[in-house]
Design brief:
- The protein is α/β, with parallel strands linked by helices.
- The chain has two domains: 13-118 and 276-373, 3-Layer(aba) Sandwich (Isopropylmalate Dehydrogenase), CATH 3.40.718; 143-270, 3-Layer(aba) Sandwich (Isopropylmalate Dehydrogenase), CATH 3.40.718.10.
- It is built from 15 helices and twelve strands.
- The strands form two sheets. It has a ten-stranded mixed β-sheet with strand order 2-1-3-12-11-4-5-10-8-9, with helices on both faces. The protein has a two-stranded antiparallel ribbon with strand order 6-7.
- α9 links the parallel β8 and β9 (230-235).
- It is globular.
- The structure holds 3-isopropylmalic acid (IPM) and magnesium ion.
């Protein structure tokens, strides 16, 4: 390219990051709306310009297009800087054949974008220590990061599906990992641990599963490059118990797809509400996907009763991981902390605190106000 052509390139075109919003189903659209408002404001405050576009996923896409995600949406996601997702699923689509259900849309986008590393931080905001079902002295100061493998294991293994065997209905799923899949997620976890307490717990079921035995072996091999990080191995059943007993003993946890799915819900609930937990899904391709860990909660959809904080905290993760902007991300987290400190709660966080509750939109507004300060 000659100089002239270079000079005539609109300079801003490079700096405007395209964000694809996939609101999805249930409370997805409500919480995504608040997340996007906060994301936009925080980015603008840091001089980052974002261009938002929308697409369909889950039941919304089934209703419009007959499938839970279209090739067009996958392509738009691939070329975006980041994808911001609400939630998928609902009773309306529960009767559909397995391959056409809303969840398949989410699984397909994770797989096709190569988003193998799912980061699920679970921290306790000090104002919420009494919102947990565990005693405040057990949960105060919890700061966990679940690093969940997201594109392999039981979720995707072949063979899978139903068969008629000897006249009996049978069904199977396959847990399979190769060493490359294990090593790359282990590296993500060790890198994260290095920046934190330098402790990593690998969660497995190696007393029963060959797959877990391979995880132990490969994680140990990767550990040789991270001699500054202390590595522990923990069986998944006892981990489920230990997380309830002494959650503060743990920092970064790395595990396979299914174990991570289960333990991240547990970690979330320990912190007070599933409505607080954000997530980032990252891979090799450069696109990141950000979504609250909670689901579509169809029972409260459309009632302005959802907690948008997980979506808002997912926006903070987007700034950090896809836009290399930790400063506005920290401002979002501080704004959330300040709103909670002032006693504002969505219904899921009220517990027996005696505090009044605010709606989803009002909670988004409160965070925006604090951000402006
Ligand atoms: C999650 C969800 C999904 C999963 C579902 C909706 C497919 O539970 O993100 O944890 O199992 O991964
Ligand atoms: Mg889950």
């Amino acid at each position: 390219m000659n100089r002239r052509a270079q000079a005539s390139q609109p300079r801003s075109a490079k700096r405007i990051a395209r964000i694809l919003i996939l609101p999805g189903d249930g409370i997805g659209p409500e919480v995504a709306e608040q997340g996007v408002r906060v994301l936009d404001a925080a980015a603008k405050g840091a001089g980052i310009e974002l261009a938002f576009e929308e697409g369909l996923i889950g039941g919304a896409s089934i209703d419009a297009n007959g499938s839970p995600i279209t090739d067009d949406v996958i392509e738009r996601a691939r070329s975006a800087r980041a994808v911001f997702l609400g939630a998928v699923g609902g009773p309306k689509w529960d009767g559909l054949p397995f391959a056409q259900r809303p969840e398949r849309g989410l699984l397909r986008i994770r797989k096709e974008l190569g988003l193998f590393a799912n980061l699920r931080p679970a921290t306790v905001f000090s104002a919420l220590a009494d919102a947990s079902t565990l005693r405040p002295e057990v949960v105060t100061g919890i700061d966990l990061l679940v690093v969940r493998e997201l594109t392999g294991g039981l979720y995707f293994g072949e063979p899978r599906g139903d068969a008629l065997v000897g006249g009996l209905r049978e069904s199977r799923n396959t847990m399979v990992y190769n060493e490359v899949e294990i090593a790359r997620i282990a590296r993500v976890a060790f890198e994260a641990a290095r920046l934190r307490r330098k402790e990593l717990t690998h969660v497995h079921k190696a007393n029963v599963l060959e797959v877990s035995q391979l995880w132990v072996t490969v994680v140990e091999e990767v550990a040789k490059d991270y001699s500054d990080v202390i590595l522990h191995h923990q069986l998944v059943d006892s981990m489920a118990m230990l997380l309830l007993r002494e959650p503060r003993n743990y920092d970064v946890i790395v595990t396979s797809n299914l174990f991570g799915d289960i333990l991240s819900d547990e970690a979330a609930m320990i912190t007070g509400s599933l409505g607080m937990l954000p997530s980032a899904s990252l891979g090799e391709g450069g696109v990141g996907l950000y979504e609250p860990v909670h689901g579509s909660a169809p029972d409260i959809a459309g009632k302005d009763a959802a907690n948008p904080l997980a979506a808002i905290l997912s926006a903070a993760m987007l700034l950090e991981h896809s836009l290399a902007a930790p400063e506005p991300a920290a401002r979002i987290r501080a704004a959330v902390g300040s709103v909670l400190d002032d006693g504002h709660r969505t219904i899921d966080l009220v517990g027996d605190s005696g505090l009044a509750s605010v709606g989803c939109a009002a909670m988004g507004e409160l965070v925006l106000q604090r951000l402006g300060k």
